[in-house]
Amino acid sequence: MAAISASQVKELRDRTGLGMMECKRALTEAGGDIDKAIEEMRKSGQAKAAKKAGRTAAEGVVMVRLSDAGTSGVLVEVNSETDFAARDDNFLAFAGEVADAAMASGETDIAKLVEGGIETSRQALIQKIGENISPRRIGTIAGDVVGGYVHGNSRIAVLVALKGGDQELAKDVAMHVAAVNPRVLNKDDMPAEVVEKEKEIIKAQPDMEGKPAEIVEKMMVGRINKFLAENSLVEQPFVKNPELKVGKLVKDAGAEIISFVRFEVGEGIEKEEVDFAAEVAAQLKG
Which class would CATH give 6-52? Predict the structure, then answer.
């Protein structure tokens, strides 16, 4: 039997949207005949699953796993098309499988993780649920102490790494991050382009008009400092005790925040807006 080339696998993958291993297996069984491989995939339902895989998946869950030693952790986001599917026990079991695999392997590339053993389970779940299921991303973190928090509906999850302290403190900080969503850890971590953009916005505000340049500069410095404080984790009032800043809370406990990772389901995904009336009309016309 002729060897299956990488270009054949790529072509079949491009035409079906299926995983590399599934495409290679199908080509091997079809003796390298791409059309025959597609036909067999259609018969088995895989091609149907691939078609569903082209639809936008912006719902889902975020899951957390911590190492036994409590010194590292992973976050994974797994998406579905609807919130209804995201509550399905089979979907949640699959999301847990993704999280476990990420924790066990240490893999940070979601595509490699999926191809390394999750793809078969994903395809089976797509066929069972009837929606596109898409593991989207992995976040990792490590420190002396790592704690996590998952919001009740599993749509927001956070990991926090500390130097010193304990997991309860890390969990409290993670809960704060989930609720307030700081952009950075410290003021100095704010990207320069974000600060410059904020300065442009401040300068364009109505109360700046007609004021001397030195007054504008003084007002802008004050407002930029306020913006940085509001968006920097250590400068924010602690959600459980607004009289205390998060940085002081941690410092008083003899600890220091090293880093944090926050995932919220669907952030950054553009949802496709469907005009059902137009869709039906187009189908009737066709």
Answer: mainly alpha
